Amino acid sequence: MMTVAASSIDRSFPSIVELGNGNILRGESLYSGKPTKRLPLVYGKGKKGAEFCTNGTLYSGLVKGKIVVCERGINGRAEKGEVVKREGGAGMILINRVTDGEQVYADPHFLPAAGLGASAGIALKHYVTSNSTRTPTASIKFSGTVYGERAPVMASFSSRGPSAVSPEIIKPDVTAPGVNILAAWPPYIGPTMLESDKRSVEFNVLSGTSMSCPHVAGLAALLKSAHGDWSPAAIKSALMTTAYAHDREGAPIADSVAENSTSATPFVFGSGHVDPEKAADPGLIYDIPARDYLNYLCGGLNYSSAQIALVSREKFTCPGKGNVVNGLQPGDLNYPSFAVIFNGGVKSNRTLKRTVTNVGIPGSTYTVHVTEPDGVSVIVEPKVLKFKKVGEKLRYNVSFVSRIGSGHSYGSLVWKSTKYAILQNQTFTNEFPILQRQNSSSSVLDTSSVGSSPHHHPSYSNTLVVEKGRNKGLWLTPSTPSKTSMKCLLIHGNLDIWVYKAKNLPKMDLFHKTIGDMFNKLPGNMSSKIEGHMNHKITSDPYVTITLSGATVGRTYVISNDENPTWMQHFNVPVAHCASEVHFIVKDDDVVGSQLIGTVAIPVENIHGGGKVEGFFPILSSNGKPSKAGSVLSLSIQYTPMEQLNIYQFGVGAGPEYTGVPGTYFPLRNGGKVTLYQDAYVPFGSLPNLELEGGMRYVHGQCWTDIFNALRNARRLIYITGWSVWHKVRLVRDDSSLEECALGELLKSKSQEGVRVLLLIWDDPTSRNILGYKTDGVMATHDEETRRFFKHSSVQVLLCPRVAGKRHSWMKQRGNVSGCPREPWHDMHYKIYGPAAYDILTNFEERWLKASKPRGFKKLKKAYDDALLRIERMPEILSPSDVCYVSDDDPEGWHVQIFRSIDSNSVKGFPKDSKQATMKNLVCGKNVMIDMSIHTTYVKAIRSAQHYIYIENQYFIGSSYNWSQYKDVGANNLIPMEIALKVAEKIRAHERFAAYIVIPMCPEGNPTGAATQRILFWQHKTMQMMYETIYKALVEVGLEGAFSPQDYLNFYCLGNREAPPSANDASRTENNGPANSPQALCRKNRRFMIYVHSKGMIVDDEKVIIGSANINQRSLEGTRDTEIAMGAYQPHYTWARKQSSPEGQIYGYRMSLWAEHLGVVEDCFKRPESLECVRRIRSMGETNWQQFAADEVTEMRGHLMKYPVHVDRKGKVKPLSKFPVFPDVGGSIVGSFLAIQENLTI
């Protein structure tokens, strides 16, 4: 026997009630007909009891052609609509009484109808009965089916615990979907089950625990078919110990019956929401013999032997002697959760015993992890369970000691192995049982249906502002951006936002208004004729931007010509901002720019506690007055802090199910292989041998050699895309037989063999060949030269026409580099084998189709021949469904996910419809769809990091909204702030964490030029913000004397210095230019930076991200650059699975990088988060900088140098006293604020 709670899915059926006073209420309905017009509204018109709309209480003359307000009670909900329709009513608004609360149901009504919660019902009745309302009116509209709601959320009709009969057993056991469930329906019964309902449907939308119970019954049957020898108790255990207690965004499951939909407890969801896949392979089970249940009936529920015999259908005698019964108590059952009652107050204690059976894999070792509830100590013995074989049983004891006098508290107990995590939740109280849940969260519900109709759905809050400590109601609050000082609070987590619709927006189209004014000045007949040709009204084109601290975090799409737009757009926004208000800015889209309509401001204080703010808010102009009478915006917003988002708590995770990064265009692909390269070419023997787990050796990859071999062996296609592809590049340089084989000749040769060769290259707008006059372009990308080289071959070169002025125009000031050797270069690369390679192919195809779209005269062609191969028609090329996957049991297997920064201006295939785009996790810009998943994966990886972060990137600028100055510069990516907050979080938890960030000593360009100096200035502001955040955390916990910010965060760069030349070399004549030129000084001092061109991050030695995106705004916002990246990990080498530092390929990759940069490998490098390692590497970096900057020229062994700034113990970042400028080349190291457009440098 199982008790099952009901929860929602992410589908709803909203209805909108618009009152004559401009207020709008949101409800539910399954009515599928047309909306009503604005009609008179009546309530309680008729005989006594007319407010309930029962048979015979309504007068036809009073309700005909009107919308009737009906209260719930006495008769059924759909039956009320039947009564209204019979008397001639045009619509119905069904309102909950106070005792019904906010739970509303989407019923298949006979006429236009909407169900509203109690708070909205109060507001509606006040509007109808108010003396100030002479002729109340309303209209009802229907939004159809809406997806993306927060789910699962516990249904309010679901029963709650604790059990009055047996409070020491948590009830319900589990939760399953029970709201808005599509279910089969007998066609001879109408969907409302009323006799008059002659509609015939084969499916109906049903709700209730009568829906959630069949889900669990079906799962039990599936488990029994898969595990025929499992007892009912074992099946129950598998379902409970693998359940989860978080929603699809990682936040705790909410309870719709609680105020503001606050988090539910084990008394509501039991062990949590069932997970079918995990239940099939639970690892451990808690089995209970049937006789133990019978003994529990004796000892726990005081059943007599005769009563039990009736149940068991066999003779049974309760254990004991005489009148003393020795049956089992609730705590004696081997139940998959714990519920403990402390009757003795403080220092009361209980010890319970459990036996687990291994149903996973032989040779498994499980370690216990306990999260103690508030006021309760938990001791588990033994702490480690070692199973030799499947079917083996082991016991453990759990002791609970109370440290509180009253109240409830909850905790968890998890048995973890390399594959499984067996979670038991604990609830403790001195008033009700102490519950220990197993596996993720649990919920409490019974198996009975509720109400007279099969349709039970969760309600929507109809309040304008929901405030804790007050009854829910319609609260009108000022919503203009505050001009007074408000409390600035840190919100670090996720914002769940809905922008529904706006009402009564002002007409903002000034151009058409001016034309209209001109028409009015014409003679009457002419004016009428011209206006007659204007077939529709021209008015505002509204959209909404959502901002925090001046940073835009969300944006709706534009709706043309609508003063009453409906967006119904959902946002799940990661935030790491200090803010006093969240601003919803309504704008009118114009041909050039936009106009401000008004703003709604939600104080952060109202959402900081996790409560939901929802309703209609007046849109106010900058002077605090309404932009137009009755102008309102409908929205909802709820904040979930980081500590409640389970998705970020365990790194990559222990499996067996991995979700990757949610909310992205491409999903996680299992069963692949990845090769990591730290440079294009690694000379043989230049790096030390590194040992991995299991005695394996790390292999230093040869990137360009592997590329050459892949091209040479290609049989059907070669697709290449890049910012620059130079045909003269030689990929192999250590093989004399291949030294003369340049890239261009190789590609020509392959195309002649029948291989389709396509090159998609950035089109530098400054490189041209016009009437024989050639310009190379300021970026020297060789784009025109490459196109000319392949012009008469079968290699097809497409220059991507995307304008990159915002990205590249500042590079015009690169300066003269003649007289210097080629700049040393460091980069990170990767190769993917397996399913994720198809996502990279999709990216190329989408970009090629967009770039090859006919333009100008090419549009006149009747047909356009696409060069892309149709690989699905080629049997020798495996389709994604047939590709060879690496087995999950292969320890060298990889999981890979592809990410992008790109928009619909650069790809063909993004949905144009905003709802479809949202389903593909695209972000809406101004008339453009954006894939920002690179930013998403960086944020996810940083938030999930548990030990350290290592970054190499060409730029590091961001989180300008939290700088001390220039907050509005627009570099709003979250990455720097997320790193700083991660360190601060670990400091407050008294845990070690380290962040290593490697950047170029100086950005590409002239170090003294305005653009480069501005970049360095923004970089300095970013560093300063991060160190200040860390110092504040140290002060909070009183550790500022023991540690400095640099014990957690350090910036580095790469450089080299060569020994003086020999006499023969010194005798050479070199063209150094002027003696004091940067070129001459570099040669004289024999030092130069190694340019860091990498774009990668390694987290906890278990995850790696590598791609083309810089950590700056133009690479991450998705509308300026086109970038791609991959995130990958080895599921057999994660912290959660190993319960120790993983030493797989990612570990070897990091150690190899550090060996190259530092010239040595030391034991402390194995624990990069340790204080010893942080201080050792910083010391080595400082020594390397001193050697680099010294007057004496000496050969450098290591190349990693501490970035040349001084960071004091309070986190203040200043120039070095001896080196305020870069050696030899000049330019302030901390930059300078020079007059140049910001978007060129962020």
Walkthrough of the structure:
- This protein is α+β, with helices and mostly antiparallel strands and 1242 residues long.
- The chain has 5 domains: 1-280 and 442-476, Glucose Oxidase, domain 1, CATH 3.50.30; 337-438, Sandwich (Immunoglobulin-like), CATH 2.60.40; 489-645, Immunoglobulin-like (Sandwich), CATH 2.60.40.150; 672-802, no CATH class; 933-1240, Endonuclease, Chain A, CATH 3.30.870.10.
- The chain is 21% helix and 26% strand.
- The chain has 27 helices and 58 strands.
- The strands form 15 sheets. Strands 37, 44, 45, 46, 47, 48, 49, 50, 51, 53, 54, 55 and 56 form a 13-stranded mixed sheet that branches. It has a 7-stranded mixed sheet with strand order 4-3-9-5-6-7-8, with helices on both faces. Strands 19, 21, 23, 25, 26 and 27 form a 6-stranded mixed sheet that branches.
- The chain starts with a strand and ends in a 27-residue tail after the last strand.
List the helices and strands and how they pair.
Elements lengths: L3 E4 L3 E2 L1 E6 L4 E5 L10 E5 L16 H4 L3 E5 L5 H10 L4 E5 L17 E4 L1 H12 L7 E6 L3 E2 L5 E2 L19 E4 L3 E4 L18 E4 L2 H18 L5 H10 L12 E2 L10 H4 L6 H4 L4 E2 L4 H10 L5 H8 L7 E2 L2 E2 L12 E4 L7 E10 L6 E7 L4 E6 L2 E3 L6 E10 L5 E9 L4 E9 L5 E4 L3 E2 L45 E15 L6 H11 L3 H9 L9 E7 L2 E5 L10 E14 L1 E9 L4 E10 H4 L4 E7 L13 E10 L27 E9 L25 H10 L4 E6 L20 H10 L3 E7 L4 E4 L2 E4 L6 H7 L6 E5 L4 H4 L16 E2 L2 E5 L2 H16 L42 E10 L10 H6 L3 E3 L2 E5 H12 L3 E6 L21 H14 L5 E5 L11 H27 L12 E9 L5 H4 L11 H8 L1 E3 L1 E2 L2 E5 L3 E5 L5 H4 L6 E7 L5 H4 ...
Parallel strand pairs: 1-12, 5-6, 6-7, 7-8, 11-15, 19-26, 38-39, 39-42, 43-52, 48-49, 49-50
Antiparallel strand pairs: 2-10, 3-4, 3-9, 5-9, 13-14, 16-20, 17-18, 20-24, 21-23, 21-25, 22-24, 25-26, 26-27, 29-32, 29-36, 30-31, 30-33, 33-34, 35-36, 37-44, 37-45, 40-41, 45-47, 45-55, 46-47, 48-53, 50-51, 50-56, 53-54, 54-55, 57-58
Cofactor: Ca(2+)
Family: Belongs to the phospholipase D family. C2-PLD subfamily. Belongs to the peptidase S8 family.
Keywords: Calcium, Hydrolase, Lipid degradation, Lipid metabolism, Metal-binding, Protease, Repeat, Serine protease, Signal
